[in-house]
Specification:
It catalyses: L-seryl-[protein] + ATP = O-phospho-L-seryl-[protein] + ADP + H(+); L-threonyl-[protein] + ATP = O-phospho-L-threonyl-[protein] + ADP + H(+). With about 800 residues, this protein is α+β, with helices and mostly antiparallel strands. The chain contains twelve helices and 44 strands. It has a six-stranded antiparallel β-sheet with strand order 25-27-26-29-24-28, with helices on one face.
Length: about 800
């Protein structure tokens, strides 16, 4: 079937126009012609795909522009902007007027900007692969973007002057990174007299010479070492031209993408990835360091040639003294100038989000360097080459001195370590000597456990001085035959009692040895715990846990304080002492006879729980040993069993006797060494209790301060047990196992007590000891020692 020619022509024209519109929308074409429009969302792409032309918007300012950028540039750096000083709306279009051929930007039919305002026919605008937007007819170039550079010089662009037309090719920096409007700096090419050289690059700041590259020589500039230096990423082919028509500089790079020179808002020239001019400000004086800075106003009197501003990716800490000026007409360069000329200023940055305005800081500026934040500029002091050499010499000397000091320090440390080891070995040897001396209480009978020093915790003398405030009188708790006792406090907050051996005390040395032997072997809730010892030269100390309520005698024999001990507390104390003695006699790792149990040596913790203390006179028995004899009777008169006081024979029954006396003292609130008138004679507490028991009036022994707080049957049973413990014959006395059974089992039938050992006032005065000497019983705050009298 034949096709109508008119229909065929219309069909072809429809598809041509439709195809053109589709290509524009897709952004795949590089040219627009008469009557064509490039909408806000459209773009031109050069034939090889190197460059893109289109509209873009800065979110910070919401201003839009028409520009060109490398298609594959992830940073979308605009290399040319058509309207840097005339922001657009998002309804703008680029078009070649269908009637006049003028290249212009319109907004809803209204002309906003004429890019080329001469009438032309059949003109087209093409984006070339060089990044040049060219408006031309078939035979003539009418206009090109390379003749109107903004802040970026691309390969093939010229910077210089057309001597025929007077056209000047120069770069003008943006006002800020988000404002393309003309900024403070301008880059030009200046060609001096022919004999002076091929020319140099010059940066002007507000019309005044700011920086120069130095004359081009052998493809390099003296003040641009990064351009074609050994560390340069690219090799630029610099092409200066000077003739009667033109004087300019251009450059080329072989087959390298994203090449550009960009004049940034603060006055430096940036290549594709790095600065090709010194990364710093110029401060208006010739620094003499080949950085190209030009003399201007000179160096302020308050500034040094070593002063410079360094950009830091940092956040300012605290609230430093600052001054803020939000004037949008101030650029980053203006902020630098304000801070540089203010002698108190130590840093600055912009105040507005669009990179305008100023914040300056004075005084102390504290900042924390971190990534992902806006940069600030901080005043630092750079070193000159001479100073660097001097610093290097100082560093070398310091390192040498450090090596010498380190060697000497190592020698001193090693020597001190050796001295400590010698001292430590001496302490161990002394401890071993103390705890294994055959001349002392058969210490060799103690079973060894392989631990050096029997598991003792040895504390330093310095620690003891610190804990006791240099053994001050304010910390002194009391004085015994062994020496003074001090209250102390360790660094961890624990309160302690420190028994310090007197150098002239033979008794104290014996006790010290004895407690060293027992320290790691005995551990029970009703025994005072020894925390360790301290041996420093002639100084010897024992460290105990501190008992805040002192000893039993502090309460039980005081007319006022005894009222704090009700019947329940007294029963608890009796039970605690009984449990402690049972542990010593039967359940500890060795059989131990205390030999000095009395109210003074029963300490009370914060809850009034009883703890037996002071093992200085204790003796260790073998498991199959039942009694021993000594020629040296030690202890406190009034608490000694008769067989021990008269014949030096002691056993576990000796402690049972002392425990019985303690029971009678707790029940009555009276000392055993006190004498009581009964009928026609005076008796001590044991005799007095026995006579009351025989006459059936044992309730009269009760401490009046108890009132009616105790049950009669319970009171009589406790007195009964006490009298069983103080019977004259050791074989008649119960063991501590029996005693605890008697105390805890009220249904258990108790045997009748036999006559105890006691004396009357006619025979022995109450102030005499077993050998007729004066009784001297020393009671301390939480430790007690009795004077030992030999028979």
């Amino acid at each position: 079937m034949a096709m109508n020619p008119i229909f065929l022509f219309g069909f072809t024209l429809f598809f041509f126009i439709g195809g053109l519109d589709s290509a524009l929308v897709a952004g795949r074409i590089s040219t627009i012609g008469h009557g064509d429009e490039l909408n806000f969302t459209d773009s031109l792409v050069s034939q090889g795909g190197n460059f893109t032309l289109g509209f873009f918007t800065f979110p910070i300012t919401n201003h839009s522009y028409l520009g060109i950028w490398y298609t594959k540039d992830d940073q979308l750096r605009r290399v040319w902007v058509a309207n840097p000083n005339n922001p657009l709306s998002n309804s703008s279009v680029l078009t070649i007027d269908n009637t006049t051929g003028i290249l212009k930007i319109t907004d809803r039919g209204r002309t906003v900007l004429n890019i080329y305002d001469q009438v032309s026919r059949n003109a087209t605008a093409t984006l070339e692969d060089s990044g040049n937007l060219v408006l031309k007819t078939e035979n003539q170039i009418l206009w090109q973007s390379f003749d109107y550079p903004t802040d970026t010089l691309l390969p093939g662009m010229k910077i210089g002057t057309n001597l025929v037309t007077g056209k000047n090719w120069s770069l003008t920096s943006w006002f800020s990174e988000s404002i393309p409007a003309s900024g403070t700096f301008k880059l030009t090419w200046e060609d001096p007299e022919p004999l002076a050289g091929p020319g140099e690059l010059v940066i002007y700041r507000d019309g005044q010479r700011y920086w120069t590259s130095g004359l081009l020589s052998y493809q390099n500039f003296p003040n641009m070492p990064m351009l074609n230096g050994p560390n340069s990423a690219f090799h630029y082919n610099l092409l200066p031209v000077s003739n009667k028509e033109e004087k300019y500089l251009t450059y080329s790079v072989y087959d390298e993408p994203l090449l550009m020179w960009r004049l940034e808002p603060r006055g430096g020239i940036v290549g594709s990835d790095t600065y090709i001019t010194p990364y710093r400000f110029c401060y208006g004086y010739q620094s003499g360091s080949n950085d190209g800075c030009v003399s201007g106003f000179g160096l302020p009197s308050c500034r040094s040639r070593k002063d410079t501003f360094m950009q830091k990716q940092a956040r300012v800490e605290g609230n430093p003294v600052s001054q803020r000026d939000d004037n949008s007409g101030l650029s980053i360069s203006d902020c630098m100038e304000k801070c540089w000329n203010n002698c108190s200023c130590v840093g600055f940055t912009t105040s507005n989000s669009n990179g305008t305005g100023c914040i300056t800081w004075t005084g102390d500026l504290v900042y924390q360097e971190t990534s992902g934040v806006e940069g600030i500029y901080v005043m630092v002091h750079e070193n000159s080459p001479k100073r660097k050499i001097w610093v290097q010499v100082v560093i070398a000397m310091a390192i040498s001195l450090l090596i010498l000091l380190s060697g000497y320090s190592c020698y001193l440390i090693r020597r001190k370590y050796q001295q400590r080891e010698v001292e430590k070995r001496k302490r161990k040897e002394y401890l071993k000597e103390l705890t294994t001396s055959d001349s002392f209480n058969n210490a060799n009978e103690v079973e060894g456990d392989g631990k050096e020093g029997h598991g003792l915790n040895i504390l330093g003398f310095t620690t003891m001085m610190e804990a006791t405030n240099n053994f001050s009188n304010e910390n002194k708790l009391g004085q015994g035959g062994f020496g003074p006792v001090y209250k102390g406090k360790l660094r961890d907050g624990r309160e302690i009692a420190v028994k310090r051996l007197s150098r002239n005390s033979g008794q104290g040395l014996v006790e010290f040895k004895n407690e060293l032997i027992l320290i790691s072997k005995l551990q029970h809730t009703n025994l005072v715990r020894v925390l360790g010892c301290c041996i420093h030269g002639e100084e010897k100390m024992l460290i105990y846990e501190f008992m805040p309520n002192k000893s039993l005698d502090f309460f039980i024999f005081d007319p006022t304080k005894k009222e704090l001990l009700d019947w329940g507390k007294r029963l608890n104390i009796i039970d605690g002492v009984a449990q402690g003695l049972l542990y010593l006699h039967k359940y500890s790792r060795m059989k131990v006879i205390h030999r000095d149990l009395k109210a003074n040596n029963v300490l009370l913790d914060e809850n009034m729980n009883a703890k037996i203390s002071d093992f200085g006179m204790a003796r260790i028995f073998k498991q199959n040993e039942t009694e021993a004899t000594t020629n040296r009777v030690v202890g406190t008169y009034g608490y000694m069993s008769p067989e021990y006081a008269m014949d030096g024979i002691f056993s576990i029954k000796s402690d049972v006797f002392s425990f019985g006396i303690l029971i009678l003292e707790i029940v009555s609130g009276r000392r055993n060494t006190s004498f009581y008138h009964f009928d026609d004679h005076s008796l001590n507490l044991i005799g007095y209790a026995w006579d009351l028991w025989k006459h059936g009036t044992a309730l009269e022994l009760k401490d009046p301060s108890l009132g009616s707080s105790c049950a009669t049957n319970q009171l009589l049973r406790i007195i009964h047990v006490g009298l069983l413990c103080v019977q004259e014959s050791a074989t008649d006395r119960p063991t501590m196992s029996d005693v605890i059974s008697m105390l805890s089992n009220e249904t258990m039938v108790l045997p009748a007590p036999k006559q105890p050992a006691f004396f009357t006032g006619r025979n022995v005065p109450n102030t005499m000891t077993s050998n007729g000497g004066t009784s001297k019983d020393c009671s301390l705050n939480n430790l007690t020692i009795s004077i030992m009298e030999a028979r």
